[in-house]
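Quick entry, no commentary yet.
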Amino acid sequence: MDGPDPKPTQKKPHYPVRDDLRGYLSRYRRERELPLSYERLRAFHEAIPLVDADGKPTLWDTVIYPVGEMAALNESLKRVYSLLRVDGDSSVMQHLYVDRVDFCTFGNSTPFRIRIVNAYNDNQDYYYIKKADASRVYGLELEHLLSPNRLNFFTHGSTLVEEHIAGIPGDIFIRDWLGRPDLRPIRVAKELVKFNERCFVRLLGDMRSYNFLFVVTPDFEDAQLRIRAMDFDQQSYNGRMNFYLPQFFKENTELGRFCMRHLHAETANQYRREEQVAMLQRAELAAERLKLLLNAMAADPISPPEKVRTLAASLGEHYGRAEYLKCDSMGALVRENLESVRRTLQKAETWKPET
């Protein structure tokens, strides 16, 4: 099988949020009135490179705004945070302050990261303000509906606000955690297989190690792990099927080898099946909402027609289903993937939808 594109992270076109998607977001309270916009944050007049705890440069710059604007800007940023955390009840957040605003020019979303600090105990939290891109919005909502993770985000016009996802970046996990004796290799490999399957079915691309996180939770026996995507810019855009399989990226080679060392093929297939069943259960629980989302996505030109055709042909061959050749949008392909999984499990008599 061919690998992903040689340069899969070339900036793709920006796709605005269209009326169908906007209507969906409004219906499910993802579209909210905001006191400031992404473009307002772009009006900084100075940027200072941000370094990490070891003094090494990061991809972020700390930005500075005119002194006369800081008080009003900070209040607006606190108001946005209150919308994320307590549905806008700012009365319980008077002790918080904005400690820093960072800006990143890397990638498609060019986000601002807002650092919020509790004045009583110095506890800190983050959230992000980005330019709203339809691809990313679809990716966030599909993650919310079809993965074991829940995401809090909302839009207003051309602005997107996202909560911070805590965890260990995949590349750091490979470097510092993969060989730790207190982590059971089977649990790590199991989550890698499940994450790989989730990305493939819902067509989330470019999941290289630095685009997803490991969440480690101590348990009474060893530790539990979960892998979470944190970059959704490449939702259903690329035409190469393997672009949606994290196992094929060179940045994830060590993780792939790790799985091969610790999992039998039969066990890996078991974990794939487990995730397929879980995805169908989630899809059934959110059936109406998912239908409306995929309808909007199917009507949205978020990828060039030639990429859709190429991907449709590859998926049709992979699943052995000619129905893919009738799909003319990425939304239709995601819908067909779910149908393929459903048929596979019904054939194996491991999935019986509720009547």
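second:
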Amino acid sequence: MIHAFTVDVEDYHNIIARDWLGREGPPTRAVVENTGRFLAHLAKRHLRGTFFVLGEVAETFPSLIREIAAGGHELGVHGFFHRQVFKLTSGAFRKEVVDAKKLIEDISGQPVRGHRAPAFSIMPNTAWALDVLADAGFAYDSSIFPIAGRRYGWPGFREDIHEVSLADGRKIIEAPMSTVTLFGKRLPACGGGYLRHFPGMITTWALKRIERNRPAIVYTHPYEIELPIGALDTSGLSPADASRVLRFHKLQLRNRGTVERKLAALLDAFRFDTLWNVIQRELSKTPRKASA
């Protein structure tokens, strides 16, 4: 079984400044340096992956986009300013993804087929985003977590890669994020905070469980391997808000030092490719359709 290795290319520093501290600013060079470490791991093993990039990262660091493309990797869209879909109108969402798609294609010289929403924010109440993506020329989306989560999730959504028929007759492929079922409950697996917080053997177990039926989608973020990291400047915030931000920041730093070796072990133990290649292999087996 060949799994998909994906990276959501975003910069922790400017996102936490915007979302938690109310300060605007461009991405920092940390996103370049940390993404470069992922690229080095893949090159060492002659593997390719998919990099879902924020438009603001591509705009600030076009050389990073060219480096990813030169390595034979797939480029996708992760929005422009990391705004969750439920915070946007359909028109604003369309502008975010269309602008990012065009920018990344212009810089890289390669087509952009895939999209992943910030914070997996395509859910039942934002299902309209799939129509927008199809209309904008995306071949596939990989934003849906088929779980009943607190912050995200689409309970009951199919777990396999399949073609979704939209209301107007158009279609888009959905590559749902990987889950495992334990004691009758679907749980998220194979990346992000789950990889960071839990021992590596948990993700290895999940991958082996998933590959009995389908390829897994492993995902991570450049900031998850970033250490050391400076203290947050919470000046200007109320004591309550500052305390809330610092609690979040502390949680984000937990176990960061373990992530790179966990990822290296996964890359050594399993076979990986771009998500688009994995999708093509899966859909060539049996046509799979569903209604949104």
